[in-house]
Amino acid sequence: xxxxxxxxxxxxxxxxxxxxxxxxxxxxxxxxxxxxxxxxxxxxxxxxxxxxxxxxxxxxxxxxxxxxxxxxxxxxxxxxxxxxxxxxxxxxxxxxxxxxxxxxxxxxxxxxxxxxxxxxxxxxxxxxxxxxxxxxxxxxxxxxxxxxxxxxxxxxxxxxxxxxxxxxxxxxxxxxxxxxxxxxxxxxxxxxxxxxxxxxxxxxxxxxxxxxx
Length: 213
Fold this sequence. Notes:
Elements: E1 2-7, H1 15-29, E2 33-38, H2 52-56, H3 68-76, E3 80-88, E4 91-92, H4 94-111, E5 116-122, H5 127-139, E6 153-155, H6 166-191
Parallel strand pairs: 1-2, 1-3, 3-5, 5-6
Antiparallel strand pairs: 3-4
Helix pairs in contact: 1-6, 3-4
């Protein structure tokens, strides 16, 4: 079993990465393999609603000049995910959101039914809103959201300060332990012949023409 951890911070090796490393340490202690991806400072384009990914059905975005398709490809080989972000104006980093928009629209099927969790890092406030924003991608894609003993956040501004947030790092370790437990439960269920299922999608629209009655 393997968990992919994605740091959405433009600062490689910063506090967001430190928080995710704490999760990874707990996972590895439970026998779960981990891999860390860092978004870093590179630009990530937003979705242009071109529809190419839907038409082609390849679990790929038409744009191949950033991390999006690499992220989807790695996700296909993993069993769980932790996505972390610094707080920008009470929300996640815009580059991370652009990446998640495209990855989940183009490759949502490779994430489906796999457990995941969002993590936020901030100097002070906006963390719970950021965690909620990230978790929404999982919640509309049939993915179990892994919890911890507190909101999954760590505090720190300057590089290295996260190491001094004892409660935040404890929360990250509990998150890792809970992720490992859930992954093992899912694996045991599969061994027993238990698989998830979903009825065909029913889509409706709030806008109706008077001609439709």
